[in-house]
Amino acid sequence: MKLFIKYMVSIRCKMAVKSVLEGMGLHYRTVDLGEADIKEDLTTDQLVELNERLKVSSLVLMDDKKAMLIEKIKNVIVEMIHYVEDLPSINFSDYLSEKLHHEYTHMASLFSEVTGTTIEQFIIAHKIEKVKELLLYDELNLTEISYKLNYSSVAHLSNQFKKVTGLTPTFFKNLKEHKKRIQLEDIG
Fold it and tell me: 47, 56, 146, 165: most buried, per Cβ within 10 A?
């Protein structure tokens, strides 16, 4: 039985879901961002209990097809930007269409309608958060970061960074006070 889980966007979330499933004596085949494939078919009472246990970790079971597609879109973007070593060389719209087997225009209009933001804005927010992370690690310079995240140039990355954060990447990197990053669950 496949379960779709809202707000499941990090490794911490995957661990929480595994823990809840194990705590209920349920066996899973896989637990990925946004979904879990379990061996058992659950009764209505078990689904209610599972949902209540997931809520403790701010996760929610989904059964609405539109909501499930939105979460799949978000999870593909999060995985692509935060957990894949190199971003795909094809454009994001083709990547999403290929990965989710839906037309991009359908996904984009549904995403905007439901979330109040565009897929592009969601991607930009995550890319900027990844830039912050890479700047804080201080292992790559700005040119390497822009290449890694498929920006056309350092200037493009810098302009987008400043537009989103109000700071230049260099200023952000040199901040002496606590450099606050946004949790993945709170982006978008």
Answer: 146
Both tokens assigned to 106: 């359908």
Inter-residue contact 100 to 72 (CB < 8 Å): yes
Contacts for 182 with CB less than 8 Å, ≥ 6 apart:
129
Position 90 confidence tier, pLDDT thresholds 50, 70, 90? confident
The secondary structure of 66-117 as a DSSP string is HHHHHHHHHHHHHIIIII-SS--SS-HHHHHHHHHTS-HHHHHHHHHHHHSS
24-65 pLDDT, tens digit each: 999 999 999 888 999 999 998 999 999 999 999 999 998 878
